[in-house]
Amino acid sequence: MPITKNDLINDTAISSGKQRETARIVVEQFFNVVKDLLKEGHSLEIRGFGTFSSKKRNPRAGRNLQTGELIPLAAYKNVSFKYSSELKAKIAGFSPKDIKEAVPATAKEQVQARELAETNLP
User: Which of 33, 70, 81, 94 could form a disulfide with 98, with the two C-beta atoms 3.0–4.6 Å apart?
Assistant: First the structure.
């Protein structure tokens, strides 16, 4: 079941011990800041959670599926969210350390892990 902004406001008020009106102002102001940053082309990184960013999409030709006619599609901005490894680990039920140990981050670490695995073969 999706959580609504109203649910988020209520949960924020309860967990912070503040009045609901104060929590509403804080939550709405946060969303306004995020919207303004994305509109201006900036990205917002929240460590341990993820990064919100906006990407410009160039104009392109589309097709009307009913008639097959080509139609021009205007340029637009698309919002994306890339979750952090900490958030991914929490959702999956692992610690971030477990994920880092399971998948080496750099190419050098991957080569070292492969060599170590090859030397430990029976």
Answer: 94
Same domain, 91 and 119: yes
Q: Which long-range contacts (CB under 8 A, 24 or more apart) does 74-80 make?
A: 77/38, 77/39, 77/41, 78/54, 79/38, 79/52, 79/53, 79/54, 79/55, 80/52, 80/53, 80/54, 80/55
Cα separation, 122 vs 118, in Å, equals: 9
How many domains does one find in the chain? Answer: 3
Whole-number Å distance between alpha carbons of 49 and 91? 11
Whether residue 48 sits in one domain with residue 33: no
pLDDT of residue 115: 72
By residue range, what is the domain housing residue 78? Answer: 43-83
| Separation of CA 1 from chain center | 19
Q: Name the DSSP class of 81.
A: E
pLDDT digits (tens, 9 = 90+) for 49-84: 999 999 989 999 999 999 999 999 999 999 999 999
Residue with tokens 């410009």: 56
The pLDDT value recorded for residue 94 is 75
